[in-house]
Amino acid sequence: MVIQDDGLITYSFERLEIGLRPMTDAELNRKFPQQSTQGPVSTNPYTFGNWKRMGEEWTPPKHSVWLLKVKNYAYPKVGVDPLKIALVSKDGYRKYAPLEPLQILEYYYSFIQGYAGNEYRRFNEREDMLKRTMFQEQIIFSGQESEGFVVFPSLAPDVTEFSIHVRGIALRYDYRNEPVETKDLTFHFQREVFKGFQPPPELVNRQ
Fold first, then answer.
1. Residue 28 phi/psi, 5° resolution?
2. Taking each helix axis from N to C terminus, what angle separates 101-109 and 118-133, rounded to the nearest 10 degrees?
3. Structural domain spans, the chain
4. Side by side, which strands form the sheet with 2-3?
5. How many Cβ atoms from other residues are within 10 Å of residue 193's Cβ?
6. CATH number of 2-206
7. pTM attached to this predicted model
């Protein structure tokens, strides 16, 4: 595994490259600027856009979003299913499964009143963006590259060390188009968690 200049961690195996990179909310907002600058009605499905809670300067993440890249220059075809990916804390206590587009959109269903109006238009915009940018289960043929987002629920504050397991990568198929050789990969990560307000020393001493 190698770390690229942009932070992508890439596993290389016989000219097959599979990489993961965490996406910050700031990066996602810059990538979709038109959908991230409308305050509470921003249509970026991955973040809260530029919305902030009243009186606060920091917005909590809506999801944990990862960029998955696959480059296949080694095999006739390679199969990758994002729903077989899992994020597991170091102690194994917390386990996260990737979200499907319908699970992400479920929150917005309650805002729709009929098949018209601004809320319906915003719902369709979010749905279209998810279809275009999320990594879908697919076959990557020789000489092809593919990338997209894998989305997990927002991680709990106590998850500071974790692994992402990419399971069941199909490398070879039989005559029935069933995989006969698969590979599992594990990527290890650490993160710093914002702890919020820290009282000054004099206040701590008085408690």
1. -65, -35
2. 170
3. 2-206
4. 2-3, 9-13, 16-23, 63-72, 144-153
5. 11
6. 2.60.40
7. 0.88
